[in-house]
From TrEMBL:
Belongs to the glycosyl hydrolase 43 family. This is non-reducing end alpha-L-arabinofuranosidase. The active site is at D39 (proton acceptor), E215 (proton donor). One of its GO terms (molecular function) is alpha-L-arabinofuranosidase activity. One of its GO terms (biological process) is L-arabinose metabolic process. The record marks D153 as: Important for catalytic activity, responsible for pKa modulation of the active site Glu and correct orientation of both the proton donor and substrate. It comes from the Eukaryota. Pfam families: AbfB (PF05270), Glyco_hydro_43 (PF04616). Residues 1-23 form the signal peptide.
Length: 467
């Protein structure tokens, strides 16, 4: 059925108002952020600095960096605040530190091993001093849990006034599995109120490839819910992220309060050349409102030998989008280089990569990298789909667009635009065709992307907000 144009235009205007109110600004980072740093944890502390800590490939120390911006962490000097000891717990592997400020002191949750043994235990350091890079650290020891078994990846959060710890641990009753996720309330930063309860186990096929693993929990509270991401399977290209959700009105110590997503929410992606994404943390961008996903992966799929001996897991950061249903949308690990953005038309809707198979509603199809310079060089830009890097949006036949590879047919000019102030709102942006003056990128009512002239009253179709 064809709706009258008038009704569609009115609907678009309402949508535009709604979308404007919910505008979510674009952010820009260059990936990978930091080479050879796995299990990345970035936090913004009350002194205004961003702090970074992560696992180093030598597994022998805890490092910290700090900077005024997340991108600046890439070149910030690194301070070693703790080194592997001669004997006992702390003489072996040093994995996945996290920095937290609790009641005026600094705490680092870190998994520590014993030299020559496969004996890893979640442990705590306490730091005093205003600056964690120069604080003095004391060991508060291994966190006492239900059992003295393989335990790691502790993280902490406060919900409804109670501070919780979530971590990964091998359950003695499930000896064929590597680790489950456990939760307990904290009595103080290094002491749990036991018993802890398991809220997730590696029971689904995608959690059991190579090893049977649930680990690396990270918690985000938004929209009345707790979103708990975790990582599953072996730490090679099979590594991926899952999601548990609980209502903030529920008893978090009751496993029934947690719902597991039946499919992983972030996996390897051959199109973007990202493999084994996982062990994430969440942080808010410099704008104070945009949620970011921080995680590691590798830039290649195949590894020789034990993945733990391959040093090239690297720290990455990308925007976390939110669906209209209030749930996070993870998309895919984005390609290396500058992070992509969404192009929301002032009249409503997103520019979408459509290769002829039809739009699926999948977030990555709405992500584009605004590449500078564009294929035509100079001041031009080209639009490269986040789901399919290597092709560029180009003028096709008539008003239609197509996607062309750099240098393989189609002219560079047809795939290049000049960035202009938005025709319908100077706060937005319009993209004028390089080779046909007066023709602009448009998102037609109904969602088709076009390049054509813009008549009076149509400016909103050719004006975009980058999100
Ligand atoms: C997982 O468990 C198996 C069997 O106990 C063990 O050989 C392996 O080292 C474990 N892997 C990890 C990553 O914990
Ligand atoms: C939140 O905390 C209050 C006060 O401690 C308590 O009465 C209430 O049961 C808690 N709510 C949940 C869902 O745990
Ligand atoms: C078209 O896009 C869909 C969704 O991204 C993808 O599954 C399919 O492989 C693509 N087809 C081609 C020919 O690129
Ligand atoms: C397009 O290809 C040319 C020649 O290989 C290269 O110099 C240029 O950087 C490419 N542009 C983009 C945007 O990929």
């Amino acid at each position: 059925m064809q709706l009258p144009r008038r009704i569609l235009a009115a609907a678009a205007a309402v949508l535009a108002t709604v979308c404007l109110a919910a505008a979510s600004p674009a952010v820009s980072y260059v990936n990978p952020l930091i080479p050879q740093r796995a299990d990345p944890h970035i936090s913004k502390q009350s002194d205004g600095y961003y702090y970074f800590t992560a696992t180093v490939p030598e597994y022998d120390r805890i490092i910290l960096r700090r900077a005024q911006t997340i991108q600046a962490l890439a070149s910030a000097p690194e301070t070693t605040i703790w080194r592997r000891k001669a004997s006992g717990v702390g003489s072996g592997q040093v994995w996945a530190p996290e920095l937290h400020a609790i009641d005026g002191k600094w705490y680092i949750y870190v998994a520590l091993g014993v030299s020559g043994q496969w004996k890893i235990r979640a442990s705590v350091l306490e730091g005093t001093g205003t600056n964690p890079l120069t604080a003095s650290w004391t060991e508060k020891g291994v966190i006492k849990t239900n059992w003295d078994t393989f335990s790691l990846d502790a993280t902490t959060f406060v919900a409804n006034g109670t501070r919780y710890l979530v971590w990964a641990q091998q359950e003695p009753s499930r000896s064929d599995e590597n680790s489950s996720l456990l939760i307990a309330a904290l009595q103080n930063p290094w002491t749990l109120r036991l018993p802890a309860v398991a809220i997730s186990r590696p029971t689904l096929a995608w959690e059991r490839v190579g090893y049977k693993v649930n680990e690396g929990p990270a918690v985000l509270q938004r929209n009345g819910a707790l979103f708990l991401t975790y990582s599953a399977s072996a730490t090679d290209a099979n590594y991926c992220m899952g999601l548990l959700t609980a209502s903030l009105n529920s008893d978090l110590l009751n496993p029934a309060s947690w719902t597991k997503s039946p499919t992983p929410i972030l996996t390897s992606n051959a199109a973007t050349s990202q493999f084994g994404p996982g062990h994430n943390s969440f942080v808010v961008a410099e704008d104070g409102q945009t949620d970011l996903l921080v995680y590691h992966d590798r830039g290649y799929r195949d590894i020789k030998g034990d993945p733990l001996n391959d040093p090239n897991r690297r720290t990455r950061v990308q925007k976390l989008y939110w669906g209209a249903d209030g749930k996070p949308e993870f998309g895919v690990p984005v390609a290396d280089g500058e992070t992509p953005v969404r192009l929301r038309a002032a009249a409503g809707g997103f520019v979408r990569y459509d290769n002829g198979t039809g739009a699926s509603g999948w977030l990555p199809e709405t992500l584009f990298r605004v590449v500078k310079p564009g294929l035509a060089g100079g001041t031009t830009v080209s639009l490269e789909p986040g789901s399919n890097p290597g092709v560029f949006l180009s003028r096709g036949q008539g008003r239609a667009v197509q996607f062309v590879r750099n240098g393989t047919g189609g002219s560079a000019a047809a795939a290049s635009f000049e960035r202009r102030a938005g025709l319908g709102d100077a706060g937005g942006v319009s993209f004028e065709a390089v080779d046909v003056k007066g023709e602009y990128l448009r998102l037609e009512v109904g969602g088709k992307v076009a390049v054509a002239g813009v008549g009076k009253g149509e400016e909103g179709l050719a004006t975009f907000f980058l999100e």
